[in-house]
Amino acid sequence: MSLFMIFLLLIGLGGIGWISARIRASAFAAPVAGTVGGRAHSRPAQHAWYVALWTAGPALAMLALWSCVQPTLVNADAIASLPAIERPASDVERQSLLAEVHALASGSIHAAFDPRADEALTGWRQAQTRWSLIALGVALAAAIAGGAWGFSRVRPDFRARNAVERVVMFALIGASLIAIITTFGIVASLLFESLRFFKTVSPLDFLFGLNWSPQTALRADQAGSSGAFGAVPLFWGTIFIGAIIAMVVAIPLGLMSAVYLTQYARPRTRRLLKPMLEILAGVPTVVYGYFAALTVAPAIRSFAVMVGIPGASSESALAAGAVMGVMIIPFVSSMADDSINAVPRAMRDGSLAMGATTSETIRHVLVPAALPGIVGGVLLAVSRAIGETMIVVMAAGLAAKLTANPFASVTTVTTQIVQILTGDQEFDSAKTLSAFALGLVLFAVTLVLNIVALRVVKKYREAYE
Asked: Is residue 43 part of a domain?
């Protein structure tokens, strides 16, 4: 029996324990003498969940631990099933043989190169069956023992509610810790590899260098053998596309759409247009990339050639930034919409009562009052834009250049990370490790923008709630 089937069996036993405990607890759900208020402390469903947790919880924990140990035991038994003279002499040979055994077991191959694989496969299957039966027995024993213990405590005075809520609290704490530990793991991995990179490349050269060419030569006597890791062109390209061009598109359109939807649109029009606007946030970025590469970029180049602008490229910062701006319009619009709606209506009515027009009220009352929330939304949109990859890869190009020409090809930090880590890479070269340094800088910038945006939004909410 597979571990998945054992998992389903344990869930079924937990369900049986839930039903049994609920039936028993329902019998004393009516007023009971000797209890607080004449009633049982906890509801039947809370007793049921207590028994179900004791039935399935310990057994599932043991099964999860067993799933980590069983493959090692099965592989060891498969190797031990071979005659002593045929057993692999090295770890490499052992791993190769086990890989063929696993491929034969899964059906991905029908014949193995190593003649010992067929015999080892027989031992592997026997060991798999034997250890699965052992796992089944241990899991059933744990489930029955836990269920019997939980069922024995189903009494009118037992505080099952407190016990279940304690389990839920620990589960929530565990979920929170997983998110925190994952964040620390990401930071630690980036920091460790970045420190390895900075042992070979000066941080000052990386942060302030003007030439980015991570390619290294095969021989030391070749030109550019040590590479050039000045990341300023990448930082500029990221800012130029994500924080300038995209924001020039997104801020006016997002803010004006929010103003129209909150102040001018009829309720029926708002119910129709707002979901249509927010659909933009659900479009995959690769679709935006196709649109930028196949439609926007050629149109921009044709326009540049028509008006005689020099240096126009088929892949341009303007194409990528414009499409990226369209992509993040919903971020700006939604935050501005919520911020304007959160302004007390008395401020708007008071302005109109003083004789101000609707447009004057928007310019001089609503937007200034909602400005902290709008700024928070813009900062969140910027952090989203500078982390975008697919649109830039498909529409902006790979040239690391310091240029303010929006019709020229530029690149960004995320694009270079993708290019460096694509394919088989050796993680002991400065070229590969530079991707982690770029990722660390991008992570730090995005984190700072998010912290600032959240602080601004929090201050705004405290002012108007």
From this structure: yes
